[in-house]
TrEMBL record:
This is histidine kinase. One of its GO terms (molecular function) is ATP binding. InterPro entries: CHASE_dom, CHASE_sf, HATPase_C_sf, Sig_transdc_His_kinase_HWE. PANTHER family: ETHYLENE RESPONSE SENSOR PROTEIN, TWO-COMPONENT SYSTEM SENSOR PROTEIN. It comes from Croceibacterium salegens.
Length: 532
């Protein structure tokens, strides 16, 4: 009862703590979701601002027959790019160059571009045209590394340009490494806006005005608009995999909760992931609830335990007195039963001994030995409170008078198997008769004789015990039947419930007994008052 009350109060306390923590978790998830939407909005605003510049540039460049370097530089300077353009490497122009225009493009780059760059890599046989970086402002050493690079030769950039031509909208590429990085491997992306010209046959692509972005710089500029607080931020190109990671902003903290939000940046699908710091401890309210619950549960358990203990002591006292009265009655019935069985065995032994004895001395000697055999086995049973007795102990008790120091004439071998009291008494009588016969007429009566007693389980509830004599006087046929033979083959076999095989071999007596392994009738010889 005390334990049940304690567990009940603890269960209610834990349920309350669980509800509090679940509510706190839901609040944190809502905050995380709200912060993810805010960061996604900041990223989209950065991308939309760039797209607006690219749209205006595409409208201007579409009206020009040629795009000279001076005119492009003037256009970019007139845009007066403000803080909304942070994170980009600049604005570039990449014209479409067909295979028959490659030499003319290289001549133009030698005249217009710094450092006389050439188109690279060489135009592939499967490419309909090249889209090399023609101009890129601002003119920095970093941006000059990209001049002349055919962006249409690279699959990720080509896919973005094809999608931009199809939709006529600013379109972002997937994860790439910008040419500006040189030997570096920092992730980046580009936003392309196609520039078309109208011809008599329809609309043709003239080139692309675009902006390259270092992904980490782009994310940092967006986070200037929306501070992430304690959250970590990651951007993935499409699915969330390590290979698709574009940019990351981590806090020095162990993150426990992660929230992912799909976003669209310039007509391209990204995944924004926010990581909230892990909370390894309970909230203050949960701790107060838990401590209060433990105190209440402990106090109730103590009070109920004191009351229950007193009731149990009173009940145990009454039960002890009832048990003592029952034990006295059972003890009287058990003693009557044991005495009757013992007297019946003694009477049978006296009757058979008298029938076989030729004189008073033989009668007294035979009766004395058999009564002592019963007494030895009774001593073993008394030591075990008339519980189970090992076979080895019964055999050793009956053979003890024939064991002499320094001699190994008797070999006893077998596993430890417990016998019920009545079966132990019967086995003791049989071993006594076999030992007596061996001492008078067999192996134990000569100096070179030996006896081996062994047993093993023949089934789960049967034991096979063998008595084997050798080295004694030769046995000349089967001797006249005596009391020992009748005792073993009749009384012992009847008590054990199995026939006894008694064979008189020339080398000595051989006896096989099958003994049942059964539980004794349970009986409490003593009882202890269970006050505690």
């Amino acid at each position: 009862m005390p334990t049940a009350i304690f567990l009940l109060v603890i269960a209610i306390t834990l349920l309350s703590v669980f509800a509090i923590e679940r509510g706190q978790s839901q609040r944190e998830t809502a905050q995380l979701t709200s912060r993810a939407v805010e960061v996604a909005s900041a990223l989209e605003r950065r991308a939309n601002a760039n797209s607006a510049y690219l749209r205006s540039g595409a409208a201007l460049l579409a009206s020009l027959d040629e795009v000279p370097a001076a005119r492009f530089r003037r256009f970019v300077s007139e845009l007066r790019l403000d803080a909304d353009y942070r994170g980009a490497e600049g604005i570039g122009w990449a014209q479409v160059v067909y295979p028959n225009e490659l030499d003319a493009f290289d001549d133009m780059m030698r005249r217009e571009a710094p450092g006389t760059p050439k188109l690279h890599p060489a135009l592939g046989a499967s490419q309909p045209f090249a889209v090399p970086v023609t101009f890129l402002q601002p003119d920095t050493e970093r941006n000059r590394r990209a001049l002349g690079y055919d962006m249409y030769s690279e699959p990720v950039r080509r896919a973005a340009m094809d999608e931009a031509m199809r939709t006529a909208r600013p379109t972002a590429s997937g994860r790439v490494v910008l040419q500006q990085e040189g030997r570096g491997n920092a992730a980046g992306f580009l936003i392309y806006m196609p520039v078309f010209v109208t011809t008599p046959t329809g609309r043709e692509i003239k080139g692309f005005i675009y902006s390259p972005f270092n992904a980490d710089d782009f994310l940092a500029s967006a986070l200037e608009l929306e501070e992430p607080g304690l959250y970590g931020v990651r951007i993935y190109d499409g699915e969330v995999t390590p290979q698709n990671l574009i940019a990351t902003f981590d806090r020095d903290s162990d993150f426990g909760t992660t929230y992912s939000e799909p976003i669209v940046i310039a007509n391209h699908n990204w995944t924004l992931q926010l990581d909230a710091p892990g909370n390894r401890t309970l909230t203050g309210l949960s701790m107060v609830t838990l401590i209060f619950g433990l105190l209440v549960a402990s106090l109730l358990m103590l009070v109920v335990r004191m009351l229950t203990r007193q009731a149990l002591e009173n009940e145990a006292a009454l039960r002890w007195f009832e048990e003592q009265a029952s034990i006295r009655n059972s003890l009287t019935r058990e003693l009557n039963h044991r005495v009757k069985n013992t007297l019946a065995n003694v009477l049978s032994i006296i009757a058979l001994t008298r029938r076989r004895a030729e004189n008073l001395e033989d009668f007294a000697e035979g009766l004395d030995g058999r009564i002592r055999a019963l007494s030895a086995t009774h001593d073993l049973l008394t030591q075990s409170d008339w519980g189970t007795t090992p076979i080895g102990a019964v055999v050793d008790a009956e053979l003890a008078p024939y064991l002499q120091a320094g001699e190994e004439r008797i070999e006893v071998r077998g596993p430890e198997i417990q016998l019920a009291p009545n079966d132990a008494l019967s086995l003791g009588l049989a071993i006594h008769e076999l030992a007596t016969n061996a001492a008078k007429y067999g192996a134990l009566g000569s100096s070179g004789g030996s006896v081996r007693v062994s047993w093993h389980k023949s089934s789960h509830d049967r034991v096979r015990l063998e008595w084997t004599e050798c080295g004694g006087p030769p046995v000349q046929g089967e001797p006249a039947r005596g009391f020992g033979t009748d005792l073993i083959e009749k009384i012992v076999a009847h008590e054990l419930g199995n026939p006894v095989e008694l064979t008189f071999r020339p080398e000595g007596v051989h006896c096989v007994m099958t003994i049942p392994v059964r539980e004794p009738t349970p009986f409490a010889m003593r009882a202890r008052r269970g006050a505690d």
